[in-house]
Amino acid sequence: MVDDHGVRKEIRGDISKIHRLIGLSPLQQAVIRNMFFMSARLPGTRQIRKMIGHLLTGARIVYGVPIFMTVTPSERHSGWSIRFFRARRSDPGVTVGNSEFEPFIGYAVPPLYGSNVDCETCDVELPECDLRRTITHRDPLCALYAFLANVRVVLPHLYGVRMCPDCPHCVQTSSPCMDIFGSNANPIGGSAGRFDALVGAVEAQKAEGVLHLHFFLSVRTNGIPTPHTEGARRNVPYADAKARCLEAVR
After folding, report:
1. Does residue 106 sit in helix, strand or coil?
2. HSE of 140, CA atoms in CB hemisphere, 13 A
3. Contacts of residue 102, Cβ cutoff 8 Å, sequence gap at least 6
4. CA 154: distance to chain centroid?
5. Spatial contact of 105 and 84, defined as CB atoms under 8 Å apart
6. What pLDDT is recorded for position 97?
7. What is the pLDDT of residues 173-218, one digit of tens each?
8. Closest listed residue to residue 109, CA positions, set 127, 122, 94
9. CB atoms within 10 A of CB 95
10. Three-state DSSP class for 185?
């Protein structure tokens, strides 16, 4: 291939650079363009990264420069994985092969709340590490559900962001998570301040395939750029809605 500076380089198996191969026929170039276009909306492809970049650029214009973070929930030490584990008590694989699974079979095991009364500590009975790994190997779907619970339940509550199971498609319904100003922040914020928006993408590690989330948090700021302020003043419905909201708060 030839890079932007006219230097020949090897592709080394990078599919995203096959359109720069030397000696491609017009038909081959058309097939590559068609492949890039069709895969631009398929999750897990390299081409979807460009669309994610467009979304992040639009978010920066509206919410400002965000903070980049990464969350990697541990499936080895997660009680969520045991909670979402599903098996039948009468299954011969449990009664004969793995009888140690029986105490952890059920929709309410392990409990979400500890048995002790002390509010400062919480004790939840979990199996040892080897048994936890065996459970996740027996039912891999429980590890996926545990990751989704951490991302859609624990993470929003930690940072004070409203997020429902239908986000971000809930914006097309009559009860979206964002308010009339486009903010998903809770009134009191979260552990690191008040964030108006959260946008991210799920990625799997190459070594073990562990899911993790790369995301951007948009911090709530008091000031916005002048062009947006002038546009808001010219937008009469937006200005009226903001005035009514401020009057109600006062």
Report:
1. coil
2. 5
3. 89, 94
4. 12
5. no
6. 73
7. 888 888 888 888 888 888 878 888 888 888 887 766 788 888 988 8
8. 127
9. 13
10. strand
